[in-house]
Amino acid sequence: MKTPILILLCTCFSFNMFSQSEDSLNSNYINVYLDGVYNFEEYIKVEIPYVNYMRNRFTADVHLMVASQTTGSGGRDYTLFFLGQNEFAGKNDTLHFFDNINNTEDESRKGLVLYMKLGLMPYIAKKSIDIPVTITSNVVATSVEKQVDDKWNGWVYGVSSYVNISLNSNYKSYNLNGNLNANKITEEWKLGFNLGTYINTETFDFGDGETFESINNGSYSSAVIVNSLNDHWSIGGEANFNASTYSNYDAQISVSPAIEYNIFPYTSSTTKLLTFFYKVGPEYMDYTDTTIFGKTTELLVRERLDISLSLQQKWGSISLGINGSNYFHDLSKNSAGCFTSIEWSIVEGLTLNGYFNVDFINDQLNLPLGELSDEEVLLQLTERQTDYSFFTFFGLNYTFGSIYNNVVNPRFDGGNSYYFNN
Question: How are strands ordered across the β-sheet holding 62-70?
Fold first, then answer.
């Protein structure tokens, strides 16, 4: 008799637990689907508890889609699209939240939630006369305006470095990396400069008195200048320097004037881009070792064309592109590639995620002459000849059950939340 009684008690407890979950839903609240705010989803549900959060977009009154892009100061420009559905079909609004690069994560999520609240208010007001929120302001009225001067004149500078050391009795690894950058972005101009270096050393002890040392060092710098001609055309140029023990370069220097055309206006870049980018210019190579073509130095001219499409819509997002380049002295020395990235909400509960990239390579002029040692091959210390490179991943995700997901329960998240969040 104990077993049936125990099952009955568990059943009653489970029924009561799920009933309480349903009580947290309110038919007077609007139904909202969050899209693109994965890092802050639980925080948003706690701070905005007066809406019903839907598990899929097809059953929502408001599809709240968030897209972002980097600002000139290194922060983020979040674009919030409030897309009405069902009784709100045709009512669409857009807000922008500019997140300062110096903001903490808490300040960022608070700012984002504030703009979400502002954007949801018109929908909440139309849903019910019993509005479950209070609107307050801490702004003090004043007639005095203060103009803040920017002593940096729009320039943003960054300095970064890291050291990674890993040791045991048979192995030693030292990784050092440093980087400097300066950027200035306005509506008319985009200026970017970058400088860096890295040192990677590994030592292997085979246990028989023999050791092997792996060294992969390099340095790099780049400069980009872009002028916005109008809402579709941009013109500018790139300059690059690269030195790499892996790629057999003491110095690789290129200077390339460039032009870009966007089919869509740049003002709609958060949701759609279709760009044609072309650059051409001289490239000087000073090789560490003599190449397979018998060269120690050479000066060539190279061109490159990139065509890219990026869309972010209610059904998901997709990015794809194709590219090709060649040297003018020998058109057979060329490369071409393509990529696709997709996140597609196919039907209710079914989502496709995937990425695909392939490159066809026939322009490795830098390959060193001679055979590589087994250690160089196994540890990938030196670039090797290849005709192509390929990478892909894809997956389907299907969820079913309750259409609501209002409740936030952070228990056990500090340990292992895998079973409940995946």
Answer: 52-53, 31-35, 62-70, 76-84, 92-99
The terminus-to-terminus CA distance of the chain in angstroms comes to 38
Average pLDDT, the chain: 83
The rounded percent of the chain whose pLDDT value lies above 90 is: 41
Kindly write down the DSSP assignment for every residue of 49-103, as one continuous string.
-SSEEBSSGGG-SEEEEEEEEE-TTS-EEEEEEEEE-GGGTT-EEEEEEEEPTT-
Nearest to 26 by CA among 61, 62, 50, 59: 50
pLDDT at 36 (0 to 100): 81
**Pair of tokens at residue 421:** 């969040």
Can you tell me the distance from the alpha carbon of 336 to that of 362, in angstroms, rounded to the nearest whole number?
A: 9
Residues 6+ apart with CB under 8 A from 148: none
Sheet (strand 189-205) strand order: 155-168, 171-185, 189-205, 211-228, 233-244, 249-262, 272-287, 297-313, 316-327, 334-347, 350-362, 388-398
Distance CA 222, CA 226 (A): 13
Q: What is the dihedral of CA 410, 414, 418, 422, to 10 degrees?
A: 40
Strand partners, 316: 313, 344
- CB-based contact 92:85 (threshold 8 Å): no
- Which residue's structure tokens are 């598990």? 55
Quick check: 30 and 127 in contact, CB under 8 A? yes
How many Cβ atoms are within 10 Å of 118's Cβ, its own excluded? Answer: 15
Per the listing, tokens 């019903």 go with: 52
Q: What is the reported pTM?
A: 0.69
Is it the case that residue 4 has pLDDT exceeding 70?
A: no
Average pLDDT rounded to a whole number, residues 255-280: 91
Check residue 421 and give its pLDDT: 47
Half-sphere exposure of 24 (CA within 13 A, CB side): 16
- At 206-251, the pLDDT tens digits run 888 888 988 999 999 999 999 999 999 999 999 999 999 999 999 9
**413 vs 43, residue with greater confidence:** 43
Comparing CA positions, the residue from 121, 78, 74 lying closest to residue 101 is 74
Q: CA-to-CA distance for 321 and 239, rounded, in angstroms? A: 23
